[in-house]
Fold this sequence. Notes:
The complex is a heterodimer of chains A (164) and B (138).
Chain A: E1 3-8, E2 17-23, H1 30-38, H2 43-60, E3 67-68, E4 78-81, E5 89-96, E6 100-108, H3 120-141, E7 145-147, E8 154-156, E9 159-160
Parallel strand pairs in A: 2-6
Antiparallel strand pairs in A: 1-2, 1-9, 3-4, 4-5, 5-6, 7-8
Chain B: E1 8-10, H1 13-20, H2 24-47, H3 51-58, H4 62-69, H5 77-87, E2 105-109, H6 121-125, E3 129-133
Antiparallel strand pairs in B: 2-3
Helix pairs in contact in B: 3-4
Amino acid sequence: xxxxxxxxxxxxxxxxxxxxxxxxNDQVTLLDHFIEENENHFPTEVKDIVKRIRTIGGATxxxxxxxxxxxxxxxxxxxxxxxxxxxNLRLYCIRYxxxxxxxxxxxxxxxxxxxxxxxxxxxxxxxxxREVSQKIMDAMKERDIRWSANGMxxxxxxxxxxxx
Amino acid sequence: MNNQKGxxxxxxxxxxxxxxxxxxxxxxxxxxxxxxxxKIDDGRKAKGWSxxxxxxxxxxxPSEISxxxxxxxxxxSDTLWDIEEKLGIELISVKEKxxxxxxxxxxxxxxxxxxxxxxxxxxxxxxSKLFHQQPKLA
Lengths: 164, 138
């Protein structure tokens, strides 16, 4: 899987740097797709998610209690922005301490399922973020990318291609 | 590889469109909720309690505590006072010195000329005036 990590200027600030992912042959981020897919059916929830992301980036930082943790494999940082049991949407992301978040995609949470594996769309979005996380960890090990001195920014080549 | 570049800065019409629908007041409310949750979580950590222990202290389910700390919850003042008591932190300030008590005192001044009988009354004389005054607080 080839992809690029981009910094979302509208959300990044003193609290945290907010990133998202653009897949190969695509022009927009996973977050853009999430918004486009859901803003007609769940406009209030999409707006609420956007407000919370802006607050995380601009003020509070990505504190763990704003997220539903352990949505991936141990240690990969894959989580979801907190969603109430009665809410309709789930947004997956990768959290790096309180300083940085990579926003992925997500989708509606069907009320009838208990585990994400029961929903095809959520499963795909979740496993996509697991793969992104793994590629980033590999690039960190290879020292192709690293964290900036203040721990807020990813530094290095953030275009991930298959041959790397 | 190891170049010094960071990620490419990205903006989109989709994100800008949603942000344009968020009023400053709405954004502020969300920020306040999240800052309040952060303050409560800092208080919990200062006590050395896990979220589960905090739930036990508050006689709540852990899922309720997760909701409190998510930054999405609308607290009642009773709940905030209970949290203040348990964590020993200040979340709502209602100290007496910060209250501004305003008294409204009404004065009636009747001005009458010798030609007009005093018993004409306020309405008949047409020259009654009411003054509202805020006395200085001690």
